[in-house]
Structures are given as C-alpha cells and as structure tokens.
Write a structure and sequence with these properties.
The chain is of the alpha+beta class. It contains six helices and five strands; from the N terminus they run αβαβαβαββαα. A five-stranded antiparallel beta sheet has the order 2-3-1-4-5, with helices on both faces. A hairpin with a 2-residue loop joins β4 and β5. The longest helix is centred in the C-terminal third of the chain and has 42 residues, at 132-173. The radius of gyration is 26 Å and the shape is elongated. It starts with a helix and ends with a helix.
C-alpha cells in the first residue's frame, strides 16, 4: 500500500531524528529474507540498542540530509534496511554481521561513521570496535598497570632484605 504525503513526512522526520543522534549507520540488502527472519533481526536490534528501519531510498536520502550520514546518499540503491547505532558505534555493524552469518540472504552493502562511508568489506572493522564497557575496562587496566608495578617494586625491597638476612643466617649455621 502506498504511503500518503503525510505518512512519508512522518517517516522522514522519524528517521532524521534517529540519524541526528546516531553514532554509526549500516545499510544491508534484505531481499529474500522471510518475515520471521526479519522479526528475529528486529528483536535482536531492540536488545542491542540499534534502530532498524526499511525505508524507500528516496525517503532515506531526505532523512539523512544534513547529518553525518549524508555521505551514504549516492550509494543507496536496491531494497535496503538501515540500522543506526544509538549506544555504541559498532552495534549495528555487529548486529548485521552476526545475523548475516546465519542468513546468507542478508547482504551488507555499506556503512558510515563520522561522515565517511565504509565499504562492505570493511564493516568487520567497525563491528570489532569495543563496546563502551570494554573500552572503559581497557582504559582502567592501562591506568592501573603503573600503580601495580610501583607497588610490586616497593614490595620487593623488604622482600630482598628478608631473603638476604635468611641467606646470612643459613651461611652462619653451616
């Protein structure tokens, strides 16, 4: 069923609002997927904080106009599903990559982050970005390493003294 002009405006406004606050975007061709597979993909998207929407390409071009995802406009063709990462930059790429492993009909076509497009072959790099919690834990381990090393070094001084005194005691006993 065709959308009315008002419905098209609502779709463009909704996608533009999401695109304005999104960290990254991924487009994938969904031709050949069943309704149950698409429902499963949407359920996983809700769990991971990814906004997924099937939008006509002309409406998607209007929606991303003025956002950092405007660079995708010239490569939007065919039946595409757009995924916008809301919480961490790699979420949409990770969702589509993992879903495409089980469903070969889902073909990732392109992505965008920071105003630059990412080819389909490089989506894995975006998907492998650490989540916020992983990045914080890596930062904390890097910050903790010098303190830990200092504590070990300071603890070594009395330990060496004890070992030296013990060696002197053993040598006097012998």
């Amino acid at each position: 069923m065709a959308l009315t002009y008002a419905e098209k405006q609502a779709v463009v406004a909704e996608v533009a609002d999401v695109a304005g606050s999104a960290l990254s975007a991924v487009a994938a061709e969904y031709r050949g997927l069943s309704v149950s597979q698409l429902t499963e993909l949407r359920a996983k998207a809700r769990e991971t904080g990814v906004y997924v929407r099937v939008v006509k390409n002309s409406l998607a071009r209007l929606a991303v106009k003025g956002t950092e995802f405007e660079c995708m406009n010239d490569r939007l063709s065919g039946p595409l599903m757009l995924g916008f990462s809301q919480e961490d930059p790699g979420a949409a790429a990770r969702l589509f990559r993992d879903f495409a492993k089980d469903n070969d009909k889902l073909v990732i076509t392109l992505g965008a982050v920071g105003g630059e497009t990412i080819d389909a072959g490089d989506i894995g790099k975006l998907a492998n970005l650490p989540t916020r919690d992983e990045a914080l834990s890596m930062l904390m381990s890097v910050m903790q390493a010098p303190v830990t090393k200092l504590a070990r070094t300071l603890n070594e001084v009395p330990g060496k003294l004890v070992r030296t005194v013990e060696a002197v005691r053993l040598s006097k006993e012998a």
